[in-house]
Amino acid sequence: MKHMKPISLKDVQINDSFWSKRQRVVRETVIPYQWDALNDNIPGAEKSHTIENFRIAAGETEGQFYGMVFQDSDLAKWLEAVAYVLVHQRDEDLEKLADEVIDLLERAQQPDGYLNTYFTVKKPEGRWTNLRDDHELYCAGHLIEAAVAYDEATGKRKFLDIICRYADYIASVFGTEPGKIRGYDGHPEIELALVKLYKATGQRKYLELSKYFVEERGRQPHFFDQEAERRGEKEWFISHEYYQAHLPVRQQKTAEGHAVRAVYLFSAMADLAAEYGDQRLFDVCKTLWNNVTRKRMYITGGIGSSHYLERFTVDYDLPNDRSYAETCAAIGLVFWAHRMLQIEADSQYADVIERALYNGILSGISLDGKSYFYVNPLEVWPATANHRHDMKSVKITRQPWFGCACCPPNIARLLASLGQYLYSQCEPLKQIFVHQYISSEAEAEINGERVKLVQSSGFPWDGQVKLVISQNKPLKWTLALRLPAWSARTEVKINGEKLQTQGKTAKGYLYIERMWQPGDSLEVFFAMEIQRMRAHPEVRANAGKVALQRGPVVFCLEEADNGQNLQDIVLPEAAKLAGQFDATLLEGVYVIKGWGVRTDMEGIGDELYSPQAVSKVPIEIKAIPYYAWSNRDAGEMLVWIREY
Amino acid sequence: MKHMKPISLKDVQINDSFWSKRQRVVRETVIPYQWDALNDNIPGAEKSHTIENFRIAAGETEGQFYGMVFQDSDLAKWLEAVAYVLVHQRDEDLEKLADEVIDLLERAQQPDGYLNTYFTVKKPEGRWTNLRDDHELYCAGHLIEAAVAYDEATGKRKFLDIICRYADYIASVFGTEPGKIRGYDGHPEIELALVKLYKATGQRKYLELSKYFVEERGRQPHFFDQEAERRGEKEWFISHEYYQAHLPVRQQKTAEGHAVRAVYLFSAMADLAAEYGDQRLFDVCKTLWNNVTRKRMYITGGIGSSHYLERFTVDYDLPNDRSYAETCAAIGLVFWAHRMLQIEADSQYADVIERALYNGILSGISLDGKSYFYVNPLEVWPATANHRHDMKSVKITRQPWFGCACCPPNIARLLASLGQYLYSQCEPLKQIFVHQYISSEAEAEINGERVKLVQSSGFPWDGQVKLVISQNKPLKWTLALRLPAWSARTEVKINGEKLQTQGKTAKGYLYIERMWQPGDSLEVFFAMEIQRMRAHPEVRANAGKVALQRGPVVFCLEEADNGQNLQDIVLPEAAKLAGQFDATLLEGVYVIKGWGVRTDMEGIGDELYSPQAVSKVPIEIKAIPYYAWSNRDAGEMLVWIREY
Question: Which residues belong to any copy of the Non-reducing end beta-L-arabinofuranosidase-like GH127 middle domain (chains A, B) (predicted)?
């Protein structure tokens, strides 16, 4: 059942006019800034205390723990992002810094392998007493991910060794065997991390521990109830759904509860389905996938439509002005989609990755990399966002990152590791897949021979892609190209000659099997038209509205270009839309223009309600990519435009 | 400046096919039911303890106070409703019950006149220490209103005497003189009540005390701050705006804070403007009136668009799915409008009364009078109303009244006193005004002669009204008829002869001055067409939508008649709408039908987003009056319908 595996970060070098500058921002701005934050070296910023917590835990300084119960994970995510950055660009100073941090981790580690500053410093007697709320295994999971990444990037095993000791200790504490705690974390994360640790070390026990955590979840008698009883808790107000622990995972059919937790769990479930060849578990994943992507996802790839508990609500409930769509949740969706894709070569997974990347994730970070959205609404009217209590989560401008704790480092580690999402290969079938059209060089091995692909892509602004194959000798293998769902027409030329594609496609991939010659070149053209996207009619918030999309990019109207009261604008069905790239705007974006109409305010009095028909006047609308909104003055924004 | 005064309840006998049955429900169902509730005689109902609190305060039984700090006001509102009911239909048993309650009040009254069970029983040392939160003067205000009404209905002075002793005591405690508390209540109510007490007793000190409370509000140094400091409060989270105490009232230009409080205060301000001939205070009222009715009011007459703090938000923020529009607030709007109307004979005030009565107030009570809405949304999708935390205030069915405390008795007292909103007269100008077209008999005195008007109205289902004048001899006076804003055309015949109305109208009233003969009869015809109402373009929630209105009645679509997903329905601009009265439906309602379109679900797959154009199929829509929604099975409801 396991179909393919990603071509690893090491073997993919991104060199892209759109993405490379964003990776540079991570390296040059985000990582140094975050380091200063972790060390409380940013004047005026909220206190982090993260490094200090580890020093106290290591017994090197006196003091109290400060921060969230999951404060350690900030450092873990920073280390993971550093590792990805080092893969292609070793940096002595940065690596020295990371090594010192790893030494500190080792000194903060307890003799039994335990490594968590909150419990070591503040509540040593409280270890493993509140798995539901205390994020203990969650923090362990992030440390594991960081250690695996650092080992892969640098070849230095020390961090991995520290973390293996911790994982071994965890394995000795949890499980179904007598004397062990039969629990699991309130926030899934360690499950996917343990699969990574298994792959990095070859130690099957880590895979089995992951499987245990996943399968134990939601069983009766309910661990969270038993644990709460042991703590003497009388009642609690958050249902097990919030933790995806309302049912054993194999019985879950809809994505419930906290969106980030959900997709982290589903990622691990996909991992386990792949590793164990468990078709039934994969079917569960697909049911959940269909629920999320066909009923509970914004057009931006955002998920979780409720601020309260940052959670999924009900099918088709996707309000635009109160969308939560946390940046981290869209990132988690990419993690999950990436795993699904390796199991089943179906373009819908790569399409969702692309949708989230270019829209609901990228919207989370400003063009300069210095400010962030947690919450990514699809419609903003500052008057209500600033004054309505039920919109208090909506910010009308991005916030400086140091006020946040989870999304900024999550964006950093995703952007720094973007290379791993571009290609996969399937050894037995001699296939190389191109999932994302991002300029890059990738290397793979087919039959023991190195194959190199050099991709030059015009994405996201045009649909021209060139692929040059370099290998030492003719070699028969299959190149599989994703046909993006947004492209109505694809043309492929091999060495200038048009390829007949009929009959060569399956589940959104075009399979080109041939004896490739060194230097063979493909020109691929994806029709990248401006599309008026419509939502399923059950999405009441979008009734009668269209969203403009071109290629993978969703567009929006901003007040800066279109004036106030964007809801008043109507785009006639027949209106022609045309666009062009504007290199001077927002660091270079494609801009869509067309003629719509809006109310002629000349005829409008101050009555609130009137039977008078209103007349309309033309307005030239100007739409910019959604991800680029709120990089100018604060104002209104709108994705879904009324149509008639 | 003071223009007219209402023809009092005593002189107006309603005999109307639409309203009389609702008044009967109040008399036969609501009042007995509420009496049982106040005495904790309803099995399974929430405990009220109200009567018991008074018994404990009177020293007749032992026990603890139970209930809200404003629990006493439930009894006061019940007594007020009882008084209105007794005006036209004396009822020995009911009156005996009320008299016994009044005796109990007397026994619970303290030697100094104080009368509040919460403080007498529970917190005797806490009197007047937290005016901001504790509703002490608010409860006093409701007792005053009840006492005035009971005196007027029965001619028995005892209750009024009790309450005068209380009011005299209050006057000795509050004011600007040295030694007095320079405070006012967090919840305006006593201000309008004291004006009633002044009118009932002729004692000017009550008017002056009302003026003091109103003028003192919001001044610096701020009383609520000083008072909080005295209590040792360090910080509080609700701003003075919530209490309309953010500015002295004469400086307020927008309606802020808790909607019920706001309109109770504005009612008192209008009263004082009238009594003192204070044009500048009336101008303040008009500024606030324009803000509310032109920027912050639902088409149903509902006000207060935020569940959080039950408050006004910002101009044009009128979401339909999260409208709060508390029933009590619409009732308070009627109180205020009624007072504005007496000062300025402008039909806009009577129009708003009519709008609120037939829509946002009547929606608060079920047809059988047994269940209630506090919150009156204009759009309900049960899936989100039941599951979204930010919609938790929205109920999809009315709740049994005993779970509530404020709205049911407020509806009861309004319906029972409806007669006073129908007519006014202006003695010096010899004018009689007809504000509301409700079948009734009214008596007034012109030049010492009795004039009787017998009105037969087809409202709200047809625009035919007949008025017969009966008096002993020919008499010259002016009949002023409101021309409802929704009627595009009015015809008046006097004794069968068409009246030339040109030049006879001012501010929405038609003035007919003539020597009236005994038995003169008017036939008035108001064109009552189905209207497609549009909201001001700044109301973003209603962009591209229409609400159907016919006469004073706003219509809605219900799932029971139109299936699910009401937002999907579009009403073409050219679609003909026709209606008729259906005596068998919902106790008799006018029903509007027409052909709209909705998405052809045949062509819809399970993709969430698609560039495919969708085709439409016709659907015959059926709209019912908004007030009658949720009297069948629970389901979706929609007022604002998409148009194109």
Answer: 431-528
